[in-house]
């Protein structure tokens, strides 16, 4: 065989994700895994039972319709109207995907030409860099900087060139917990109109805003025809293994995304689609209960980390809190995280791996708080040994 590398060059640097490495480390050492963002308690029993019923009754066991089952597309549209006042046609403006991950990949593959520039907040959610790379496009980071991780709108404006095709937004933002304010979202929307940019928004934490409000980007003036909104059942219903996500957008955008999506998975998660349709219709108090529960967990972990000597950057949303370990005398978050399981039996993720500008996140470390209170308390106790 030739010595040409097997993995194509577009994907250079996208080897094993940090999560696989850290989860393996957690398993090897028996450490508490606050690295990857998955809840350690399943979502509502009624929703789980709805999936069992669908399986037993033979609903969704064979290929469901390509765009998603009608029950789920209707439920997605109703949910968006109930919580955000948005109206979508379930037949032409809603597309069910294999999680938000496939929605992102299908959208980027559909909308981008090789060489197009995509401006995205960094630290990035890791699949953004992969999706942009697979499309042959060029990522342009807008660095969110500590302590508050607010986007610098003037810096964003300066990054737009004639090659910029798309803004990739994420609010609430993983990993920093930054939630875009209405004024920031409006300023970004104005820029998108002025420079005729497409906008892709990842809103998987739409129900996990602890401080402030979630502004669905597409609700802003001029955004309807240029915005692809992405969400998912994983985070909202604590079933991250089900991989049911969705895209809502104007018909022309949906048609484009459907074109790539049909050849990625075609369809997925048949019986789970029925269960998620029921989940989206849960009463209001489910959604506020989830948020209040996670807010309490955020507070528990944040206070514990502060007591343990970390600088804690307040998180306004998501499953995560970002800390700075410089206050512990540490100089490098990656080294800190690699040693942490051995030192005190906890796994966390260094923000530097989510950056192009590694310097900006050098000493930042992300912890997930979507875990049972007793697990968080135990983790905090272990982390207390660092400064003892
Ligand atoms: C978890 C997560 C996703 C992936 O969602 P799935 O539905 O599991 O594919 C996408 N974006 C962000 C920001 C996430 O945290």
Describe it.
- With 388 residues, this protein is of the alpha/beta class.
- The chain is 41% helix and 15% strand.
- The chain has 13 helices and 13 strands.
- It has helices at residues 18-29, 45-56, 70-84, 99-111, 126-134, 153-159, 182-194, 233-237, 251-264, 270-280, 284-307, 333-344, 373-384, and strands at 32-33, 94-97, 117-122, 138-143, 164-170, 198-202, 227-232, 245-248, 311-313, 320-324, 346-347, 349-350, 364-368.
- The chain has a 7-stranded mixed β-sheet with strand order 2-8-7-6-5-3-4, with helices on both faces. A 4-stranded antiparallel β-sheet has the order 9-10-13-12. The chain has a two-stranded parallel sheet with strand order 1-11.
- α4 packs parallel to α5.
- The model has no long low-confidence stretch (mean pLDDT 96).
- It binds pyridoxal-5'-phosphate.
- Keywords: Aminotransferase, Pyridoxal phosphate, Transferase.
- Residues 31-383 form the Aminotransferase class I/classII large domain.
- Its cofactor is pyridoxal 5'-phosphate.
- This is Pyridoxal phosphate-dependent aminotransferase.
């Amino acid at each position: 065989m030739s010595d040409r590398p097997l993995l194509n060059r577009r994907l250079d640097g996208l080897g094993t994700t940090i999560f696989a490495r850290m989860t393996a480390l957690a398993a090897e050492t028996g450490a508490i895994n606050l690295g990857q963002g998955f809840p350690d308690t399943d979502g509502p029993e009624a929703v789980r039972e709805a999936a069992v019923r669908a399986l037993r009754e033979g609903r969704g066991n064979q290929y469901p319709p390509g765009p998603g089952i009608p029950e789920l597309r209707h439920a997605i549209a109703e949910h968006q109207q109930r919580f955000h006042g948005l109206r979508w046609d379930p037949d032409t403006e809603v597309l069910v995907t294999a999680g938000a991950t496939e929605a992102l990949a299908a959208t980027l593959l559909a909308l981008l030409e090789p060489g197009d520039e995509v401006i995205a907040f960094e630290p990035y959610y890791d699949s953004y860099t992969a999706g942009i790379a697979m499309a042959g496009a060029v990522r342009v980071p807008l660095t969110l900087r500590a302590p508050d991780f607010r986007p610098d709108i003037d810096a964003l404006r300066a990054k737009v060139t004639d090659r910029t095709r798309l803004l990739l937004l994420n609010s609430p933002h993983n990993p920093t917990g930054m939630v875009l304010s209405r004024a920031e979202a409006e300023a970004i929307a104005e820029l998108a109109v002025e420079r005729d940019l497409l906008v892709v928004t990842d809103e998987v934490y739409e129900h996990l805003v602890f401080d402030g409000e979630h502004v669905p980007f597409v609700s802003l003036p001029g955004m309807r025809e240029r915005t692809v909104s992405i969400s998912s059942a994983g985070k909202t219903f604590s079933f991250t293994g089900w991989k049911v996500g969705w895209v809502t957008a104007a018909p022309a955008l949906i048609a484009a995304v459907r074109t790539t999506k049909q050849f990625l998975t075609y369809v997925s998660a048949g019986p789970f689609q029925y269960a998620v349709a029921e989940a989206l219709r849960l009463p209001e108090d489910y959604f506020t209960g989830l948020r209040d529960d996670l807010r309490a967990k955020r507070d528990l972990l944040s206070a514990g980390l502060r007591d343990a000597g970390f600088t804690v950057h307040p998180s306004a949303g998501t499953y995560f809190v970002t800390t700075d370990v410089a206050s512990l005398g540490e100089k490098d978050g990656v080294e800190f995280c690699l040693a942490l399981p051995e030192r005190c039996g906890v796994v966390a993720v260094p923000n530097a791996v989510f950056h192009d500008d590694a310097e900006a996140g050098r000493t930042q470390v992300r912890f997930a708080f979507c875990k049972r209170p007793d697990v968080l308390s135990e983790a905090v106790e272990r982390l207390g040994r660092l400064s003892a």
